[in-house]
Amino acid sequence: MRIIDIREKTVSLSDPMSNAVISFLEMTASAVAIDIDAGEKGTVTGYGFSSVGRYGQSGLINERFAPRLKAVGDMTGADGGLDPVHGWAAMMANEKPGGDGDRAGAVGVLDMALWDAASKIEGIPLWQLLSERYNGDNAHERVPVYASGGHYYPDRDLTALVEEIRGILDQGFETVKIKCGQYGLEDDCARIEAILPLLGNDGSRLAVDVNCMCSTSGETQAMADAYAPYDLAWIEEPGHPHDFELLTALTGYYDGAIATGENLFSMSETYNLMRYGGLRADRDLIQIDPALSYGVVEYANIVRLAEAGDWPRSQMVPHAGHLLAFHTVAGLQLGAHEMAARPDFILSGLQGGVEISGGKATLPDVPGIGFETHGPLWAVLADL
Ligand code: MG
Questions:
Q1: Crossing angle of the two packed helices 323-331 and 295-308, in degrees rounded to 10
Q2: Terminal alpha carbon distance of the chain
Q3: Is the residue at 382 inside a domain?
Q4: How many domains does the chain divide into?
Q5: How many angstroms does the Cα of residue 56 sit away from the middle of ligand 1?
Q6: How far is the CA of 122 from the centre of ligand 1 (A)?
Q7: Is the domain of 90 the same as that of 118?
Q8: Ligand 1: distance of its center to the CA of 78 in Å?
Q9: Residues carrying an active site annotation
Q10: Shortest CA distance to 184 belongs to which of 214, 217, 206?
């Protein structure tokens, strides 16, 4: 098996939504296609699409990582199938350790396309291939999911927020996450109190994401004091992703769960978070996003690292709701899948045919990642 061709294009994700720190008006993503000569099975094309939040990586892909990948000769693994690990090792040749950043997303989207192709060649969905390779053939029978929404919009008030979350709950979710942190604690509490009645006033069904808004321990403690009466499912990204001192001070002060990690991009960064972040493996959540973190090869190692550090897989909850993340949650039996629930955003939803009820999703059965069954993503990927 060998690579015939790699194609890439940058796609606009422009959207009026924002969180506490960024607007999505100028957001972009990379879409890639990799053609594989699969011998008797002919040419198989694997697709990749960036996760949201870090911009497309056209330069890194076209100048560095795609040429290294194309130069790999035989990609056949020991089992006779396509082995993405060969490609991953070639892409990471001559890369110094550390400084992961945007490089991790460029490698991640190419790695994704290789895994899409590998599972298509096997004729099985990716979650099944991951289950076989990394999880002793075990997988979730139904995948725990929660819905992410409640962003800020220039023209929306609390009534619109309530309507959005009501619509999300009608889709079959039990737990939702909303954005907070942009306009101060009084506004945050108003947002939380507007949503709680939709959830039977059960705070354990509501998570709040403040997108790194706190800069000092005083700010995190004021936030914890304000949110504590609601008994929330978790508070997400209280401060800068690398500020472990701030995080440690908060977990020493606040008993509720903290979620973080979506802006860390490698096994070594995850190690530091687990070792020095003051997090508690019995409640806190690690949100490394496989698509932004060198892809499946690195993420499988991150899960091994977590287990070696006595972090149960239930505490691994990838960021952003990418179709790739859904397969990793299903095939590696992770804690839950975040799903962008607003129907008109390109990265919202799941594979065609997947059904959600009672906070759990059925498994997709099409070979590969299933981009072909996702209308908005396939509309972009098809012409690659
Ligand atoms: Mg977040």
A1: 40
A2: 21
A3: no
A4: 2
A5: 19
A6: 34
A7: yes
A8: 38
A9: 179, 319
A10: 214
252 three-state secondary structure: coil
Q: Residues 67, 189: one domain?
A: no
Q: Which backbone phi and psi does 210 adopt, to 5 degrees? A: -105, 5
Residue with tokens 């990793």: 328
Residue bearing tokens 């493996």: 281
Q: Which domain holds residue 171?
A: 133-369
**Distance from the Cα of residue 121 to its chain's centroid:** 25
Q: DSSP characters for 279-313?
A: --TTT-EE---GGGTTHHHHHHHHHHHHHHTT--G
Give the span between the Cα atoms of 289 and 279, in whole angstroms. Answer: 18
Torsion of CA 310, 86, 99, 261, to 10 degrees: -40
**Does residue 45 sit in helix, strand or coil?**
strand
Calculate how far, in angstroms, residue 319's C-alpha sits from the geometric centre of ligand 1: 7
**How many Å lie between the centroid of ligand 1 and the Cα of residue 98?**
23
Helix (H, G, I), strand (E, B) or coil at 67: helix
Whole-number Å distance, alpha carbon 135 to ligand 1 midpoint, is: 27
- List the chain pLDDT tens, one digit each, 384 residues: 999 999 999 999 888 888 888 888 999 999 999 999 999 999 999 999 999 989 999 999 999 999 999 999 899 999 899 999 999 999 999 999 999 999 999 999 999 999 999 999 999 999 999 999 999 999 999 999 999 999 999 988 999 999 999 999 999 999 999 999 999 999 999 999 999 999 999 999 999 999 999 999 999 999 999 999 999 999 999 999 999 999 999 999 999 999 999 999 999 999 999 999 999 999 999 999 999 999 999 999 999 999 999 999 999 999 998 999 999 999 999 999 999 988 888 999 999 999 999 999 999 999 999 999 999 999 999 999
If asked whether residues 107 and 145 sit together in one domain, one would say: no
Whether the CB-CB separation of 110 and 103 falls below 8 Å is answered with no
Ligand 1 centroid to Cα of residue 202, in Å, is 21
pTM, 2 dp: 0.97
Do residues 375 and 356 touch, judged by C-beta distance below 8 A?
A: no
CA dihedral (95, 97, 101, 106) positive or negative? positive
CATH number reported for the structural domain that contains residue 63 in this entry: 3.30.390.10
